[in-house]
Amino acid sequence: MNAHFQRKSAPRLHQLAHTARTIIAWILATLVLLPLLAACVTPGAAQQTVVKAALRTKSISEIPTPAPAAAPALIAAPVPTSAAAPTSTPAPTATPAPTGKPVLIGTNGGEWQFDTSALEIAAGEEIALTFHNGAKTTPHNWLLISGDDDAAIEVNAAGEQAGQAAGYIPDHTRIIARTAGLVKGGQSETVSFIAPAAGTYVYLCTFPGHFELGMKGVLTVK
Fold it and tell me: What 8-state DSSP symbol labels residue 164?
């Protein structure tokens, strides 16, 4: 019986063995092919990934540079309205040239003396006497007074008391004509006056010490 069973089951066992060998062959083939398939599939996937990345990432040169914001428009400065033309300033009235007979007197350079110790004019005549200070730095004045040497001493003393601010010229009743104040070195001043009555008069400089050193003269009116 066993022999009979063995004869009947031998073909089936043989078929099962063949099937098992076939399955094992397929499994081995699959194990061998899987790495090859993976190698074939991976480059494509990588390539697709690179392509997708390339599609998502553009070259810097292809990225459009945003246009700079437009600078704000400059506000035009208001055009200044034309100012009214200034009214023309009237030219200062020219000081009229002194009229009268010109008489000149000065100093002996820097010395404390007049360049002339005697003058002569006519009574009632209009006089334009120009005093020129020939000194470089020392100031002088010129006064014409009524009276003699004693009167000149009196006026000279009053001039010293008047002080420099007054040009050493006092407010005195004996003064007939005078400069406005001290005349600086190298400058001139013109004094206009009407010649007094006939007689002799004294002119002098009342700057302290000058009269005492002989800075005086006599004006004769005829």
Answer: G
Identify the three-state secondary structure at position 60: coil
204 and 108 together in one domain: yes
Domain count, the chain: 2
pLDDT along the chain (222 residues), means of 10: 54 70 75 65 46 42 52 53 56 64 93 94 97 95 97 97 97 97 97 97 97 96 96
- The radius of gyration of the chain from alpha carbons, rounded to an integer in Å, stands at 66
Query: In DSSP terms, which residues pair with 199 in a beta bridge?
Result: 221
Which CATH number goes with the domain that contains 107?
2.60.40.420
Cβ atoms of 101 and 128 within 8 Å: the answer is yes
In a domain, 43, yes or no: yes
- CA distances to 39, 52, 91, 208 from 47, in Å: 13, 8, 99, 120
